[in-house]
């Protein structure tokens, strides 16, 4: 039992982050203007004489916006499981106490009633004046707003959220700082974004791409 629990924790902590990074790279390949913009931001803040570090993330708002937009469209865990603690009525349905409930995080992030152009990859939506000054001024990914719940919400929210929000942008940032990412011309230069059902939001097709060096990750070698 302890081994199974450890495997669950390990899988939840590694699979979801690696899946998110994969989706992020795929979106950047399909949106080269976004990749160029974040590379420019990293070059201006970090420079080209060293590799991006975790301490740089707070000074890279566009990179953070890319991670948030990736989590909105491709949450690592598309469903959050909960259990009703008392009898209640949801959407006209009577729900007895102890009923297992599933929150469709994937659908919430694509709800046209909550998001403008919900199917488009637009990191700028998290940086716009309307977002900063409007009703969504404090919108984040930590479960404070039910339109964006990649880590769940409440006392049973993902305990690794803080780690993921440091690890994912750091790894993703280093990958685009050091390399341009491309796919074969035979695929029209774009990545197939078809999804596969699972406990984590996996890709239906392997991500096959090749890096083109723009900054050596091993400058001393």
From TrEMBL:
Main location: membrane
Pfam families: p450 (PF00067)
Record keywords, A-Z: Heme, Iron, Membrane, Metal-binding, Monooxygenase, Oxidoreductase, Transmembrane, Transmembrane helix
Residues given in the record as heme binding sites: 158
Coiled-coil ranges per UniProt: none
Gene3D superfamilies: Cytochrome P450
Cofactors: heme
GO molecular function: heme binding; iron ion binding; monooxygenase activity; oxidoreductase activity, acting on paired donors, with incorporation or reduction of molecular oxygen
Name of this protein: Cytochrome P450
Entry GO CC: membrane
